[in-house]
Structure to design on (470 residues):
């Protein structure tokens, strides 16, 4: 497998559509420009634009009512030329009216049912499965329990990738991270004697800690860390830097060492908490909904894998790579989505063996963007939209949509990106010139992302310029 470009990219619920539309145009004229993380791919995939400052990040709110629906023939006319650019290679795509009833044929499509190598748009499916399965306000708990000796404790991983050794008031890349200092303070309050040994318990998850289909250099390149249920800062050496630095090869050990340092303990060992032992200290991750948003905005691979395993645990499936993939697929199928052709080897899209159709991506996004007719519906899928990066404004789209053709999409396109060697994708929502909210999903396979990604931006920007009624 060739070297991969950097990824900058409780009971089960019935599917509920959500009351979400996007105030795109109004956001362009906000008083303060909010700059997201200026992330960019390595290996010649571009630098931040200097001609265009970051745009304001538009908030979600109502679009004008009664906006006309584009004519499918008009969409075909508008998209024919840009969709046939050779730089896109094999292209699968779909455009859907966000207000259409579920199951309504798309307004435009090309090979929408063809399974494609998706890259990080896979996270949209992981996000949907998590929001359909988990309580969005739940937090993932990291616990400390008494150890086998009076002067020992066991640090028990609960699958939270945000746990940090940073002190209060200092932010990591994660919102509201759980803190080692808080755990240590609780332990000291509960145990009136010195602690000399910290055991680390990573038994919550099973199976290999790296997916077999991932590249051998993915940890060193900063794409991922070994997936254990206990880790510190997602395995980052600098918890304030999202990507680009080699990740830890033993994130559980790092977490144990951090707690040991905070407690004045001298040893860190692997171990397991005795069954039924009550915790003496516990800290929680950000809420599931916040984890989903951050995962999509920053395209965080570690969070995606952690959420897939939480879905597996909730659905009583083995919390491994295979179990997480099965749980995500089952959650989507149970919610009524057509998962024919869906192949998942992970929850992040880092695997080149994943296969997803743009039809499925479009269906999930259309549900997230639909208007619910039931005012009592909880907006389960809303974090998918609020977590989408904004073209030219934040996340993995901060430095895209910069050429003369795609610049029209800045601030009005919200989309999840995907990049692997030979695969590029873009899927999200866009407001057209009449204020109609459209859902789109595009996947390109077989060409260099350096060539394909600008053309995907052009396609989305074309939708933003299109009334397409002729």
């Amino acid at each position: 497998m060739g070297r991969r470009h950097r990824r900058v990219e409780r009971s089960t619920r019935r599917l509920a559509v959500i009351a979400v539309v996007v105030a795109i145009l109004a956001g362009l004229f906000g008083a303060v420009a909010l700059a997201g993380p200026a992330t960019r791919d390595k290996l010649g995939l571009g630098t931040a634009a200097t001609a265009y400052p970051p745009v304001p990040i538009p908030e979600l709110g109502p679009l004008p009512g009664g906006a006309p629906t584009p004519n499918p023939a008009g969409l075909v006319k508008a998209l024919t030329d840009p969709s046939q650019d050779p730089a896109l290679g094999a292209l699968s795509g779909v455009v859907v009216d966000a207000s259409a009833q579920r199951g309504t044929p798309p307004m435009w499509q090309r090979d929408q049912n063809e399974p494609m190598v998706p890259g990080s748009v896979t996270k949209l499916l992981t996000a949907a499965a998590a929001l359909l399965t988990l309580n969005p306000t739940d937090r993932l708990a990291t616990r400390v329990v008494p150890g086998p000796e009076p002067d020992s404790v066991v640090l028990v991983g609960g699958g939270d990738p945000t746990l940090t050794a940073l002190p209060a008031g200092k932010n990591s890349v994660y919102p509201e991270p759980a803190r080692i200092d808080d755990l240590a303070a609780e332990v000291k309050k509960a145990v009136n004697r010195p602690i000399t040994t910290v055991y680390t318990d990573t038994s919550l998850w099973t199976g290999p800690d790296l997916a077999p289909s991932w590249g051998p250099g993915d940890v060193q390149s900063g794409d991922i860390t070994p997936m254990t249920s206990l880790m510190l800062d997602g395995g980052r050496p600098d918890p304030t830097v999202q990507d680009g630095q080699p990740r830890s090869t033993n994130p559980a050990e790092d977490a144990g060492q951090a707690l040991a340092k905070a407690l004045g303990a001298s040893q860190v060992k692997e171990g397991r908490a005795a069954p039924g032992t009550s915790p003496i200290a516990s800290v929680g991750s950000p809420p599931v909904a916040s984890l989903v948003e951050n995962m999509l905005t920053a395209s965080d691979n570690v969070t995606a894998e952690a959420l897939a395993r939480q879905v597996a645990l909730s659905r009583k499936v083995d919390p491994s790579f295979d179990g997480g993939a099965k749980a995500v697929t089952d959650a989507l199928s149970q919610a009524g989505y057509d998962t024919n052709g869906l192949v998942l080897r992970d929850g992040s899209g880092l695997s080149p063996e994943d296969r997803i159709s743009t039809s499925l991506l479009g269906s999930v996004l259309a549900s997230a963007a639909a208007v619910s007719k039931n005012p009592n519906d909880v907006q389960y899928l809303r974090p998918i939209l609020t977590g989408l990066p904004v073209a030219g404004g934040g996340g993995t789209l901060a430095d895209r949509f910069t050429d003369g053709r795609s610049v029209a999409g800045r601030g009005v396109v919200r989309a999840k990106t995907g990049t692997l060697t030979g695969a590029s994708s873009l899927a999200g929502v866009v407001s057209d010139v009449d204020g109609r909210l459209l859902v789109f999903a595009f996947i390109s396979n077989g060409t260099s992302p350096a060539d394909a990604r600008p053309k995907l931006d052009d396609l989305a920007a074309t939708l933003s310029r299109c009334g397409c009624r002729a």
About this structure: The chain has two domains: 24-135+291-464, 141-286. The first strand starts at residue 90 and ends at 97. Confidence is low (pLDDT under 50) at residues 1-51, 374-378. Residues 24-135+291-464 form a domain with the Beta-lactamase fold (CATH 3.40.710.10).
